[in-house]
Write a structure and sequence with these properties.
Helices cover about 55% and strands about 0% of the residues. With about 100 residues, the protein is mainly α.
Length: about 100
């Protein structure tokens, strides 16, 4: 995972702190990202509503289902409290031990 984090850090440095950039040195607007996701989900045949938070939620859920530590996921999501991260667990299929 550290290799992926290093690559993301380099991308952020080269794009003025933005992971996704638009034309020139500008970043993508929130609305642009929403439109891109909507178009991509339609092309993929996904009938459910997809938005940036859907991706964030999926990311967290997959990490937790894959056995990642809750505090590591908390840090990646920028949550101040583990309780906030634990809200993602209700959709996962695993059981938490010692919480």
């Amino acid at each position: 995972m550290s290799e992926a984090i290093e690559k993301i850090k380099k991308l952020l440095e080269s794009h003025n702190g933005y992971l996704f950039h638009g034309t020139g040195s500008y970043h993508l607007s929130t609305r642009s990202v929403q439109k891109i996701l909507k178009t991509a989900s339609k092309k993929a045949g996904i009938k459910k509503n997809v938005n940036p938070h859907t991706l964030r939620h999926s990311f967290a859920t997959h990490l937790l289902e894959g056995g990642s530590d809750v505090t590591a996921v908390q840090s990646l999501l920028g949550h101040n409290e583990a309780r906030t991260t634990l809200a993602y667990i209700h959709t996962t299929k695993f059981k938490i031990n010692n919480c």
